[in-house]
Design goal:
The protein is mainly α and 338 residues long. Helix content is 81%, strand content 0%. It has 12 helices and no strands.
Amino acid sequence: MVLLTKEFGKAFIFKRIRPGIKSFFMKAGYDDVPYEFFGWLFWVTLAITYLIYMLFVYPKISPYSLISVFVITFITWVVMQITLIALSSVYFYFSLTINIYQRTKEIEKILPDYLQAVSSSLKGGMSFEKSLWTAIKPEFGIIAKEITMVSKKVMTGNDLKEALEEFTQKYDSPILRRSFDLIIGEVESGGKIAHIIDKVIENIRKTKNLKEEMSAATLTYTIFIGSIVILIAPGLFALSYHLMTMMAQFGGKLATTQVGVTPINFSLTNINPGFFKTFSIGALLLISFFSSLIVSVIEKGEIRGGVKYIPMFVISSIVFYLIFLSILGVLFKGMIAL
């Protein structure tokens, strides 16, 4: 089984891109590249491709000649499996990217408390290296794991500065990098490390409070965008659908009762109500998707924080669209009956 999964998956990863892939997975919390995943991905997509081919493709091409069947089979099989692998890879890439983002935010959240523990150990007379190791506690989560890895590297002969810089470069966090750059610089100059750490902690907490104030100040914009996506846009699309349907029905009645009397053509337009409903749902999906990203930029300052809003906006807008369709359908039905 290991040969069919891990070794098979490793064979599909070129050596020149393995370091980049390993770094990416380490940021997401993996100690090594899960080659078993790539192996399983190949076999699962192979099985799905086989089912799709046998159920939908082969019955249609079986009457053809043997050569035609072979060529079509080869092309469709390769295209389908590559497409499935690509879609799966994109999905897992974005999932891991969100995981890395969440880990980075968790590190930034815990960092002041961890540095406070380091500062307390320094004030107790410990060296900087000893203070880093002593401050490792289970409640510090990711930082505790990362500093443990730093300590292992230092114990095996690596320089402390290089080990800490390697840790800070793993995550896209300016706060983390700047904090440890200041601390490392003070360690090399032989200054008051505890004093610098206290200043770093103070600045991190001030930055955090400032971000929270900015997020609170933009709450009005978030509510406005959310109301447009969840209520206003679905309501307008539902109203347009029923207005178009009502005009078509009125036009049909006038066309049959006043032929040759009125010069205005009230006949059914080229827009199909069923097509308009499909178009409305597609438009709401696009509006919800991009609105969630806009809200993320307003609230968090970056797009990756808005992924959690996408399902909420999409589901809410579609649900309210269907509700408005039903409510307006009853109202317009009564108006037409009058």
